[in-house]
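Hi R.,

Here's the chain you asked about this morning:
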Amino acid sequence: MATTDNDNILMMFEEINQKLDKTNLQIEKIGKEQSKGIIEINNDELIDEIRQVKTFIEGSNNKQSELLNEMEIIIRNEKRRIDFSPTSINTMLIVLGFMAIILGLTLWATSLKAEKELYSDNDIKYRYIQMIGHATKEEMATMDTIFYFHRNNRKIKELRKQVEIFEENVKQRARILEQEEMLKREIEELDEKLHSKK
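And here is the predicted structure, written out as tokens:
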């Protein structure tokens, strides 16, 4: 988009330059006609003014041409430095770089997901062995079949549910035992207070 803007600016300056050239030619034509034709003495002042205007326009035209040339050089330098059109090599390299990064991140995320599943499976197996209290070769072979060789997600969910129910029961049992222990201590403290008062 910057390239088309720069081209548009250059075209506008070229049009202005052409219009100034046409104006300059018209002024010269008027000056020649007046010098050829019958000129009265009062028209000498007019001719002097026209010449002054002509020199002023030529000077401004030269300044404008110099500015246009400088701007054209700057624009062309900018155009060379920043060229990100869809077909440029820089753009293609950037796009390929982003694609490589996205592909790498996708592969990494996939490997992390597989690793997470492996850790989750090992966690469930360990917690299941803790629940049953022992592990025979047959039970280990059955778990390997369920988790690896013939993965059965339904069975894995059932095992997870059993383990979670067992762990919740263990926590409740621990809370009950803790409460019983606190009650025993309170009873002992009350008994001590009663015996000390007697």
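One quick note: The chain has five helices and no strands.

Cheers,
M.
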